[in-house]
Design goal:
Two copies of one chain form a homodimer.
Chain A: H1 7-14, H2 18-25, H3 33-45, H4 52-59, E1 64-69, H5 75-90, E2 94-99, H6 104-115, E3 121-124, H7 128-133, H8 137-144, E4 149-152, E5 162-166, H9 168-181, E6 187-192, H10 197-212, E7 222-225, H11 235-248, E8 254-257, H12 260-272, E9 282-286, H13 290-294, E10 300-303, H14 306-326, E11 340-343, E12 346-348
Parallel strand pairs in A: 1-2, 1-3, 3-4, 4-5, 5-11, 6-7, 6-8, 8-9, 9-10
Antiparallel strand pairs in A: 10-12
Chain B binds a DNA duplex through helix 2 and helix 4.
Chain lengths: 356, 356
DNA sequence: ATTATTTGCGCAAACGTTTTCGTGTTGAAA
DNA sequence: TTTCAACACGAAAACGTTTGCGCAAATAAT
């Protein structure tokens, strides 16, 4: 087990100084061709690779991006990570992942753990608990320390940073419009409570679509699920709640659900009540995951282009990081110019809606 | 934007030496209570946190684990990551993720990128291309440099390191036995080509189960899918191949598929051919993902306890890392004692098999 | 009053780099 | 021969820590 070779060791072996070795390896003209070749040959022989940590310390940047997400066992988030990793890698960055498990404390701890020099910037999506408590001090502190943040999907206006969001409102609106133009008269929505920003926006899209078609929305057709029931452990409760909803609204002929799980469960319940999909009830979900594609019937859904979001977020972050380099210490950092990128959604039609 | 405060700055402000500050913060008895309190108060006020990179350089360890997996948009792998992250975090480690995309080159590059000091050890699952080429030099080189590796799921005998695998053989065997005891007479298997070790093992389990029940296996009932078709882009091809398989074998009454996708697709095709599940054909899959749970009918499946695998792998790695610390440079590292942990599978019965 | 001991703190090295600035040697120009 | 530039290399600082050791001052023991 030969340990990793360092400049110092090469220097000692070749009886030159450390600086000579360093320069020789970086092809400095300062060093004679003779020495250069000697050093490079030796380095290659012993597989010399500069120590990343030492470089990070010296350069005061790690070439590493920190990702904080609520959950990784989740099609959407893992796709975002894939997008981030893709461009990060392409641009010479690594990716370090922290999971908040939707909990405020873990979010804070994870960020503190990484903010102490381990990374150059964050890409994150806010945990539900944080959104509920509306305590965003950790984001501000991080930004104040000069560490850029890019938020995606679950963002919050209070924080000044780059953001990548999906066009929840219009995505939902178009989905509901699709149901309307497919002939639905009583469209229900299954959504989250309002403090989940994406849920609120999607609900709003639903309402706007109805309004523009001069249809009065009925509160009885709006089911707001407590996010506690989202986890796979509470599938039964979720199902029961939706069942109750169906019992109270026997005339539903269209359902818009703000995520796959709600949509799938709704289809299941609808069938249990003897409805045919899409003949009796048409269903559209949000988030184009594995479930939508493989459900029976396959689910018409609003695709969020999760991977694109990740790629865009990574580009935004890295751009800012490398921009900071150029105008390093321009002090008056020319009025921060943060942007919010909106990723357009796409309605993917499958078998849970009628093909007209 | 106040930048991160360092020991040096505190020292300057308080007009003491850097070492005094460091010692004061670590509650050294060497420093007077007076100074200690002063320093600590100041440090707290300015939110001093030791720089991780500097610590890593000094201690020659990063408290970071590198994960290399073929794919992250995948229920199994993301669950493993969740397990790793869970215990890593609990034990004070971070987790840095690299994706190989099933490609040999990306696997190598990713590992080299991380092996230069960024991490203390690897947890990885081998890419399909690497398995195909059987080129494992990068693993050996890493290990030779003193960086421990823990492999999970897709492992290989040629490499000497800790491993965590699922009991593929027995898991499959019991699944097939379940089909047999449920009355199936013509059980087909849909599996991968043999170079994917897990596919090979699961096929072997299938064969052993039949053999023990004195049933001759028929090669016509064994469908080995080319992994190229695994990706979501080739769903149609996969479906067609399975359709052809069905056409050639009209008497199938039981299917064992080595993953969810194959199982789901098989069910779809079976229905297309007019079969009822589980009445005409019973199906069992492998890997307990979202699809199995939410499919119609829900899929009986062999659960691999992915999260447990991740947790176990992380524990193995960290144990080895911290063990190295104690006997640091014991030189003759007392004949390496690597273990292979087998995670037992569990048959989760749902609606794609008959409840007797 | 002298010596011994404790107390409180700073120096310097080390981790592995990169880079600026010297400096001694060589060869050519004066 | 003297002067000067070019050449080839080394010393040292810096990034931010931790820690063994030395040293002075203050206290205690003789």
């Amino acid at each position: 087990m030969r340990r990793k070779v360092t400049l110092k060791q090469i220097a000692r072996e070749l009886d030159v100084s450390i600086s000579t070795v360093s320069k020789a390896l970086r092809h400095s003209k300062e060093i004679s061709e003779d020495t250069r070749e000697k050093v490079q040959a030796f380095a290659k022989l012993y597989h010399y690779r500069p120590n990343n940590i030492a470089l990070s310390l010296k350069n005061r940047k790690t070439k590493t991006i920190g990702i904080i997400i609520p959950e990784i066992v989740h099609h959407f988030f893992s796709k975002v990570i894939r997008g981030i990793e893709l461009v990060a890698n392409k641009r010479g960055y690594n990716v370090i992942v922290g999971l908040s498990n939707e909990a405020f404390d873990k979010e804070v701890i994870n960020m503190e753990m990484l903010a102490n020099g381990s990374i150059d910037g964050f890409i994150l999506s806010i945990s539900k608990q944080t959104l509920l408590q509306q305590d965003y001090h950790h984001f501000n502190e991080t930004i104040n320390q000069g560490m850029p943040i890019v938020m995606f999907d679950r963002v919050v206006n209070e924080i000044n940073c780059d953001k990548v969001i999906v066009d929840d409102l219009n995505g939902s609106k178009r989905a509901v419009e699709k149901l309307l133009s497919n002939g639905c008269k009583n469209i229900a929505i299954i959504t989250t409570k309002d403090y989940v920003s994406v849920g609120r926006l999607r609900t709003q899209g639903y309402l706007e679509a109805l309004e523009e078609h001069k249809i009065y929305s009925k509160s009885s057709l709006i089911l707001k699920i407590d996010v506690e029931l989202d986890s796979e452990d509470h599938l039964d409760d979720l199902e029961k709640e939706i069942e109750q909803f169906f019992k109270n609204n026997r005339n539903i002929d269209g359902i818009f659900a703000v995520n796959e799980l709600y949509a799938i469960t709704a289809m299941k319940v609808a069938r249990k009540f003897g409805n045919q999909i899409p003949d009796d009830i048409q269903v559209i979900g949000f988030t184009d995951g594995v479930l939508s594609k493989h459900a029976t019937p396959s689910l018409t859904t609003v695709s969020q282009h999760a991977q694109d979001m990740g790629e865009k977020a990574a580009d935004l972050l890295i751009n800012r990081l490398e921009l900071d380099i150029d105008q390093e210490e321009g002090e008056e950092e020319e009025e921060e110019h943060y942007q919010t990128v909106i990723i357009e959604t796409e309605l993917i039609e499958r078998d849970s809606t009628k093909a007209l």
